[in-house]
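Tutorial sheet, problem 5. The three components below are modelled jointly, 1320 residues in total.
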Amino acid sequence: MPRSPGEASHDGGARAVGTRLYDLVAELTPMMRSITGDGVRKTLATVRGALEPAVPFAVREVPTGTPVLDWTVPKEWNVSQAWLAGPDGQRVLDAADNPLHLLNYSIPTHTRLSLPDLLPHLHSLPDHPDWVPYRTSYYHEAWGFCLSDRQRRELPDGEYEVHIDTTLTDGSLTFAEIALPGSSPREFLVTTHVCHPGMANDNASGIATATLLAAALADRPRRLSYRFLFIPGTIGAITWLAHNRESVDGIEHGLVLTGLGDRGQPTYKRSRRGDAGIDRAVTRALKETGRPYNVIDFSPYGYDERQFCSPGFNLPVGRFGRSPHGTYAEYHTSADNLGFVTATGLNDSFAIILRTIEICERDRTWTSTSPFGEPQLGRRGLYRSIGATLDREAVEMGLLWVLNLADGSHSMIDIADRADLPFNTVADAADALAAVGLLA
Amino acid sequence: MPRSPGEASHDGGARAVGTRLYDLVAELTPMMRSITGDGVRKTLATVRGALEPAVPFAVREVPTGTPVLDWTVPKEWNVSQAWLAGPDGQRVLDAADNPLHLLNYSIPTHTRLSLPDLLPHLHSLPDHPDWVPYRTSYYHEAWGFCLSDRQRRELPDGEYEVHIDTTLTDGSLTFAEIALPGSSPREFLVTTHVCHPGMANDNASGIATATLLAAALADRPRRLSYRFLFIPGTIGAITWLAHNRESVDGIEHGLVLTGLGDRGQPTYKRSRRGDAGIDRAVTRALKETGRPYNVIDFSPYGYDERQFCSPGFNLPVGRFGRSPHGTYAEYHTSADNLGFVTATGLNDSFAIILRTIEICERDRTWTSTSPFGEPQLGRRGLYRSIGATLDREAVEMGLLWVLNLADGSHSMIDIADRADLPFNTVADAADALAAVGLLA
Amino acid sequence: MPRSPGEASHDGGARAVGTRLYDLVAELTPMMRSITGDGVRKTLATVRGALEPAVPFAVREVPTGTPVLDWTVPKEWNVSQAWLAGPDGQRVLDAADNPLHLLNYSIPTHTRLSLPDLLPHLHSLPDHPDWVPYRTSYYHEAWGFCLSDRQRRELPDGEYEVHIDTTLTDGSLTFAEIALPGSSPREFLVTTHVCHPGMANDNASGIATATLLAAALADRPRRLSYRFLFIPGTIGAITWLAHNRESVDGIEHGLVLTGLGDRGQPTYKRSRRGDAGIDRAVTRALKETGRPYNVIDFSPYGYDERQFCSPGFNLPVGRFGRSPHGTYAEYHTSADNLGFVTATGLNDSFAIILRTIEICERDRTWTSTSPFGEPQLGRRGLYRSIGATLDREAVEMGLLWVLNLADGSHSMIDIADRADLPFNTVADAADALAAVGLLA
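Model answer (structure tokens):
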């Protein structure tokens, strides 16, 4: 995907960000993660390590059995080792090689059984014979292995040894929060799930992107406050919401980040509201890239937007990524690997999110102090005095549109949409008008 | 029109219904009907005879001269015989052969006149020389005959004898009502006009369809209450409305039935409101047939929807049929005969109306009892436990969509529309969720 | 552009109007106008002379220095003579030949200078080497000449004499108003700018059109009241608004007239509201011409609609003309001359404005006195008794639509739009129904 020089300079060294994102994805991908346990803790420690020490990073532990909305925090799962040995005593599969080999949340099991008895515990993908699928059994006690269909079909008859050294005990659910206060208490929420093991796009890319976004925003002046959640999928979102029912009203915008590094077009899934500020801000950021993108409607199927957009909360939270889950064969398989994501894709996603944040930071609603007739811009030095290096006509149109629509009911995005001008042209015009007292 | 096995089974023996409808149309078509008189009474007796005795069937008689809204009930018209004899004394035309031959509401007339004096009293269709037109003169005293243009052109010179043995006297206007109470007092109104003589599609098909619909619904459990009106066009609707001005507020949905048996596509004409529940229910029933259909906007021209949708009432009443009047040459002629309608067409119309009724019966608005986050469906046995024989993915999407939109402001149709799922998938999901207490 | 006989007769001698408009444009074009001064006064005297003495015509003078909204009335500018002489003493340019030669609002200047020193004061159009541009410097003190680029390039070296005999002194800003009271105090505002010198389309065509419109309306019965403003652009509109802040609420409709005589299609620019009565009335008038036209959205760039549609006023004022400014090369040059406008174009614009006014005059919202069921039209003689020479079906549909939508919330335009009938068919039906007491 060719990039124009303007984008690179706009992002402030975004190519470098792409490479840093890729390196962090590479570090996070191989870990054995689940919805609870030390895999999550190790992931959060990696996130912590990628941030400056001054960035506030709070790890929360919620005990097993805690009621959370309609759910209960489950037992904590940990793995010391898990392998399958063949009739010849050689290890056929070992979770140490690839965490996907172990059915996630497998109960402890040590047994010997024949191939016919083993087969119901094996999961493979006949349509993609070289890929290992990702499977879980969180709320139904089971054990199993995942492997390539090619390997499965070649398993010889004989007795197999199952050695699944896991624990499923009272413990806790672990998640982390980063809160970056702004001049306004209104919050921009960024969430990413931290429960998927061994896959690069879903969702090491989300964890890495949220991490470096937090790092970037920690260094900037902020109008909005920002909250980053690193949570296990579904149960983590439900746990966080259960503990923050009162404070969610402070959420002005939110994004669920997932699948940000593949070669597909950027894709935004609207919030349940459909026309929330975040919906319009991401759409504008995407439109102003000048490159293809997708915006899709909300549906109650997907990632944690399901929880944030449940009818009782109905938060202005959309989802951003590239190819949506279910639209690519590599989804939830071993083919979602470090070759499936690119620094370019990660970089582009990061730039669009930062651009969205910039738009939200500047998307104010002004009121003209001189609404009767046009104010005389000439004597205030506003004709030709600003934007000397920009397109003068667009600058003047920006001034006129902002003055005309600054009636207390049009945001900067509203004005940019109606005027068909770039957001920055409108926001810059508003800043110039505010500086001479024509907006309040 | 080929029909899939699924439709036939869905309709519960609908093919048989088509044949029964056709037979009833054949019985009703030849009668001499008008807006008042014994033709209406004979028609209503035929309807009564087609219903089980337990079905409540009330015949009303409203006396001539009764003020009804802006109108007055007219004199009652009856025909004993009506014929025209030629110069040779032979009968040229006889209403006993075809009720269309007599200008409807002709005043009593016994006279002899020459062909030139006769011609102004003769009505024919030069563009369709073999068809006899249907003509009326309800509110302007006149007499006349209708005949094929071919016959008219061949009339020899000479003296003709006019023998119109009609009476136009104080009597009454006759109509019938069937009221089938449901668990809710909210009403679904079905009306059909009973004034057109000698034609199969307009409107023996409407009378027959309303009759067998009432028979079918009398046997079913009903949430809504149903009211069937068998009324003369215009003056009958006005008379009924005049006597029910207070109770029309109970009408939740309504359909005017006319022209249900021809070979054209099913056509729905929206109510004046345009987006009433009936408008959305019929549209969904039509869409889910998977076959071509028409939905047209309201206009104040047509059948009795003109009265039900007059601005003072503005009832949620649409019109259902096949080819709209005025779009086919056979309309209001002798060519609207038993060859113009088919059991297949009647059957298809009947199935769509029943399906509309089923949708209205189930189109409730629920509220989730667990709106904060998604409820845990697994522990309630709602994943994979229902719809084992249906498409599991659609079933799960149905559950998720209903939960997400069950906020007290979305009906089942709303949810089916937004989710792009079949109505039954959504309604079944709601039933399953209600059964475990997740909806109220 | 061919015209049907119907249009000509409808307009009451519109061809004659086109010729009269053209003659008035020809008289107005050559004058030296600016935003203040005797050029405006001479223009207004010409307007006055084209009106019957009985038409009320008020000329206002607002003194230099008067604060008007965010602005101040500037010094008055007058020109006695202005010329440039070449090295040979011959006059190279003389404002007496063409008022465009003088930079409008040039300060008094008498000097001699070399060609290199002169050139920064000369304005020409390299892309159109034979045309003289129109340039102003109202709020920045400057002097200069405008000339064809061909002439500029041929100027010989040597010393030039600049003789600009202007005055820029305390005086006043001049504008005129015509107020024609109607039976309602609600106003239809027509404005045109009177500051552009030497050009036929922009805006001698606007001045001429407003003048003959006022003449035509003065002779007619009027439901609405009409106010015509002949004002200098921007500062004139601001001055008038500053003196009428309280009374602008009486403005029901408004049109800014400019560029009405060129060969382009008629073009309407919507008010800031977008769906005001004037927006719908002009659109309908244009649609019913059956010929191509443009309707464009409001933007805060253009003519005095900028002031009337500033957010504090937000008046229902649109702009009507033919080719919009900026879409034709001749705009603001000497090529906007008497060959650029035609009597046909002026006539067509005039007819559309008159038609718009007729629609606004008749665009009432009625309420049926018989809203329950259809009233019986036959006994009131409304079937076939009116419109005998018109299309009977359209007449009857007009009656039925008006009765159906006469619920106090639909205007005649609303009904014409929904019924897809000509406005007059609907308005005539309403008049007929009102005459028999069915509307109030």
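Marking note: The mean pLDDT of chain C is 94. Full credit if you identified this.
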